[in-house]
Amino acid sequence: GVNHSYLRENRWNLWFVATGPDRGHVDKVLDAIRTETGLDVLDLPILRPFNIDLGFRLNKEMDRPPAPRPVRLACLREGDNDLLQALSTGLPICERPYGKIAERLGRSEADVLERVADLQDAGIISRLGVIVRHRALGWRSNAMVVWDIAPERVAAAGPVLAAQPGVTLCYERRPVPGVWPFRLYSMIHAQSRNKALEVLSKAAQLPELEGVRHDALFSSRCFKQTGAMISRQGVAA
Questions:
Q1: Alpha helices (H) along the chain
Q2: Which of these, 99, 132, 131, lies nearest to 116 by C-alpha position?
Q3: Residue 213's closest CA among 150, 162, 145, 149?
Q4: Alpha-carbon span 229 to 237, nearest angstrom
Q5: pLDDT tens, residue by residue, 107-125
Q6: Residue 155 sits in which domain range?
Q7: For the segment 156-184, what is each residue's pLDDT rounded down to a tens digit?
Q8: CA atoms of 22 and 75, how far apart (whole Å)
Q9: Which residue has the higher pLDDT, 69 or 114?
Q10: What's the number of domains the chain is made of?
Q11: Are residues 185 and 146 part of one domain?
Q12: Lowest-pLDDT range of 135-144, 159-168, 174-183, 208-217
């Protein structure tokens, strides 16, 4: 259930993303981590996404993120989660990769191709592409910026922050009163720390974020980065 894990510059320094087919699965993952490590775990679920599609250009400065597409969850059918898990694990390198996936799932190739097209049209599949190790290509300064913003300001600030060049992810998470007050999160991927701080400086000057306390947690080590767990039978990429 843990698909991302990073060491970051903060007292709360080990950050991870836990996913699962339902909230009960995620709760079991968090309980297991608490038991096996003896450490406190902050549960910070996403409340509202503003941009969670990490796609960026590798050969030029960061552009604005693509406009979010509407998602029609009503289009999901039985068996789609297993298909989505198979796609997130990676396409087989062969002449007919969708045929291989269909064989693994006990379905026909035509059925798989039809469902992929339908799920793309519904916005559930945002895109199919190549995953690259961006750190190896020079994008080594990655910062998670957390914003201690009042709840009533999030709706206005979130979309504007998400649209800033250089901001690659943006979402609202539930804070932990008295422990972790930050509610709005944004990721910055840059080729140097100074470049990342430039992006942050411009974001902090936005009228919607005026006077909002924030902190930049730069990543210093990556322990894990894989696809998310969607299906109970799934194996992450």
A1: 23-37, 80-89, 97-105, 109-121, 151-162, 193-204
A2: 99
A3: 149
A4: 9
A5: 999 999 999 999 999 988 8
A6: 2-67+134-224
A7: 999 999 999 889 899 999 999 999 999 99
A8: 18
A9: 114
A10: 2
A11: yes
A12: 135-144
